[in-house]
Specification:
- The protein is of the alpha+beta class and 268 residues long.
- The protein has nine helices and eight strands.
- It has two domains: 106 residues, Homing endonucleases (Endonuclease I-creI, Roll), CATH 3.10.28; 122 residues, Roll (Endonuclease I-creI), CATH 3.10.28.
- 42% of the residues lie in helices and 22% in strands.
- A hairpin with a 5-residue loop joins β1 and β2.
């Protein structure tokens, strides 16, 4: 399987954001007196998992498995080997943004440091708890969008207007989402007391996000949605654009493209 030439620094930044959105750091009791650390990402489309596996050179991609809730297939990237676990820890250490993932990561690091093969050796890792926040100058947000972001478009029934919006959500991360609102723009909503959703509709904010993702590309199926989203944005950004002035066939083509933004299968 062939992969594109990858900028290592950008890919690692993307991976940190993607892992925080969709990854799981697990600590499970083994048959002996110690616990085992593992890292898992579940995805509907295995291609992005193979990209991760190819980049690191380890881990396994297995599936399809089937969701108990939806019965839909998904695939799993898994890392459990202590040597490879150490590489993941060193990759992620000091770069995490979300409070909840830092807590899980700390348990994961502690578990690794207490494995029989590491507890009395020099391979132990010191956990870095420094605070970090994303910017438009690094790839974390791109990875997090691949995991948690959503691009959408809508055409009014009377065909009077096309609207585009981007949204991203997460539970119990008010500090990070207040920061993202300052970074991206848009409106921040708090649902069910601790569930935060950032919705971006303003044209200038959307253009800023597009410019960012051109430099720090998406790597999952969300890239397909983004390409369609961008095409619509370019089209309606033409000076003096009037939807009502388009011919019927042109309206239908544009309407199908808007609908296609929302038709890309979800990753999970």
């Amino acid at each position: 399987m062939a992969f594109e030439k990858i900028n290592k620094k950008k890919f690692i930044q993307w991976f940190v954001g993607f892992a925080e959105g969709d990854g799981s750091w697990n600590v499970a009791k083994s048959n002996s007196s110690y616990s085992k650390a593992s890292f898992v990402i579940n995805q509907k489309d295995p291609k992005v998992l193979y990209k991760i596996k190819s980049f690191f050179g380890f881990g396994t991609v297995k599936g399809p498995y089937y969701s108990k809730k939806t019965n839909k297939p998904y695939y799993r990237y898994y890392v459990g080997n202590p040597k490879h676990t150490k590489v993941l820890i060193e990759t992620l250490n000091g770069k995490l943004v979300l409070k909840k993932t830092l807590k899980r990561f700390e348990a994961y690091v502690n578990c690794y440091n207490n494995l029989p093969e590491t507890v009395t050796s020099s391979t132990q890792v010191f956990l870095e708890k420094r605070k970090t926040l994303p910017s438009y100058r690094d790839g974390w947000l791109s990875g997090f969008i691949d995991a948690e972001g959503y691009f959408s478009g809508h055409v009014k029934k009377d065909w009077s207007k096309i609207s585009l919006n981007f949204s991203i959500s997460q539970k119990a991360e008010n500090e990070v989402f207040n920061h993202l609102q300052k970074l991206i723009g848009g409106s921040l909503f708090c649902e069910n007391e601790d569930y935060f959703r950032l919705k971006v509709e303003k044209a200038s904010d959307i253009q800023g996000l597009i410019d960012y993702l051109e430099n720090y590309p998406l790597r999952s199926l969300k890239h397909v949605s983004f390409v369609r989203f961008k095409k619509i944005r370019v089209r309606i950004n033409v000076e003096n654009f009037r939807w009502s002035q388009l011919g019927r066939r042109a309206q239908e083509r544009l309407k199908k493209l808007v609908k296609a933004i929302n038709d890309v299968p979800t990753e999970k």
